[in-house]
Amino acid sequence: MINGSENLLQIAETYSGLIPVFEKHGLGSYFKEENLKKIGRFTRLGTLLQSKNIDVSSFIDALNDQLNAGTAAPQDIASVQENLHFAAMLPCGLRNPFKEFAESYLTINKDKFDNLNYLIEGNVNHELSYYPLLDSIKDEKELPDVIMASDVNNFFHRPFIERFIENDVFRAYEPYEPNSYLEKEGYSDPGKHYTMYTANMLIMAVDKEKLGSRTIPQKWEDLLDPAFENDIIMRGEENFFCNAVMLPFYKEWGFDAIRTLAKNIKSGQHPAEMVKMAGKGGDAGAAVYIMPYFFSRRIRSDRVEIVWPSDGAIASPVFILVKKNKMEEHSALLEFLFSRETGEMIKGRFFPSMHPEDSNREFPAEVKWLGWDFLTRNDIGKLKDDIRDVFWEVWNTKERQS
User: In terms of DSSP bridges, do strands 288-292 and 86-90 run parallel, antiparallel, or are they unpaired?
Assistant: First the structure.
């Protein structure tokens, strides 16, 4: 019998005949093989249903009715319930090098990590899948022991904070005084729960030919000029635009800035697509691209000027959460994550190192960080929804007029 505590991989492998029921309710994507191997291993059925506002009891009763009717008989296999020790959901520019670097180290030091169950994935794969599930998780056992995540996501939302941060489930790991590069902006968590690891630095790339006679923007507020209407591209997709950009604009200039951005943004693209577009001409590109510094370094065009804004590159957070009662158990993993060697690898991918012995000379000095006062004073989940509503109201009007 199913009770809701099973993970999705367990459901798929034990009750494969039930998958059509999930597909009928719009949950089929969670049972695709690539997703099952990732979040399916540690996402409970009850949590998924709650996150989709599906009545858990009724849905499970319907599943068990099918099992009792013999239309979806369980397979005779061992349980695949897993406890994930370490999960890393990283920005695209960091995911592959970090994964290769970490897996090499873990293999060489197999005697220390033989029983470590881990997952290293790109942040974009979870922006619209795993993160929303966090609002419905109530049991800390559903969470990995050590979590690395990116952007201002659901780990900063009220449900997670009230259940796990305010109850002191996580404790910051601070083996040394952090590097002054980000720390000068008050990057470390004063509450000692989030361990700030590095930051995805967001800057501007300007196509000078498409810019024409307009002045090259030098600070973020310049992008609110009506002269840039429908001529900015930033990270986004069909129903999502980057919160790491929207939140600082709201903080500095309020909802009017969000409305202006909706007018001035031409489209949302993955940064890898921006690299291909920038400086290539044609109708597809734009005058200005808001993108990670890592991706800007891959642009090979004399037409494009990289602008590190005078008021600072936006520091989109990359942070770690460590369960307080698991810190000693995973001391070897934490020592690796915070080693000088790992810091050097991160810096080599144009992400600042928090290790105190790294100079971070490669990065201009100016940094724009949301700040902990803003993050704790606001209901971040609700604020993101409000920003999204204001943005899409203008965006949809623009779309209808085009």
Answer: unpaired
